[in-house]
Amino acid sequence: MPASEGHPPISSVQSLCVIMSIQNPCLSCGACCGYFRVSFYWAEAESGGGTVPDDLTSKVNNHLCCMKGTESQPARCVALMGDIGSQTRCTIYEKRSSPCREFETHEVDGSVNEACNRARAHYGLPPLNPLLPGEQVA
Ligand code: SF4
Ligand code: SF4
């Protein structure tokens, strides 16, 4: 159909697809910070030149340390404030380690991170759904 008839060409229609932001479920969750051992290379701690405050870490072995509170079950990171499943906050957000930065609710293709749903299930929280085309987590 030619554009001159008053209808935009298909390529223009596709570019009109709106990105819909859904509310970030992490704001009322925090389950992963109270479920997994959060371990990382020791040099991510301040004493190794990194950012994570030393006094919030525990040694795992000669190569790894972890966030205090996550070395045993039941786990709960000492840097986590608030009530899991209600309202939580990471008190070292800007200084958090690489596993904390890399753990996402969804994969790049929009599928759910199953580890996220496992942590949520542990606290009786409903599973997250895959993102629909055009959706992104705010
Ligand atoms: S378990 Fe999932 S939804 Fe909950 S805080 Fe972690 S990444 Fe966010
Ligand atoms: S450092 Fe922050 S993001 Fe990482 S486990 Fe602890 S509370 Fe969660």
Q: Strand-and-helix sequence, N→C? A: HEEEEEEHHE
Measured by DSSP, the beta-strand proportion falls in 15-25%
- Enumerate how many helices there are, as a single number: 3
Number of strands: 7
Please mark out the parts with pLDDT under 50 across 5 or more consecutive residues, or reply none. 1-8
Quick check: average pLDDT? 90
Helix content: 10-25%
Bound molecules: iron/sulfur cluster
Q: What's the end-to-end separation, in Å?
A: 37 Å
Widest β-sheet, arrangement of strands = 2-4-3
Radius of gyration: 20 Å
Q: Could you explain how this protein is built, in words?
A:
The chain has about 140 residues and is α+β, with helices and mostly antiparallel strands. It has one domain. About 15% of the residues lie in helices and about 15% in strands. It has three helices and seven strands, in the order H-E-E-E-E-E-E-H-H-E. It has helices at about 10-15, 100, 115-120, and strands spanning about 20, 40, 55-60, 65, 80-85, 85-90, 135. A three-stranded antiparallel β-sheet has the order 2-4-3, with no helix packed on it. Strands 1-7 form a two-stranded parallel sheet. Strand 3 (about 55-60) and strand 4 form a beta hairpin. The two termini are about 35 Å apart. The relative contact order is 0.21. The model is unreliable at about 1-10 (pLDDT under 50). Bound molecules: iron/sulfur cluster (2 copies).
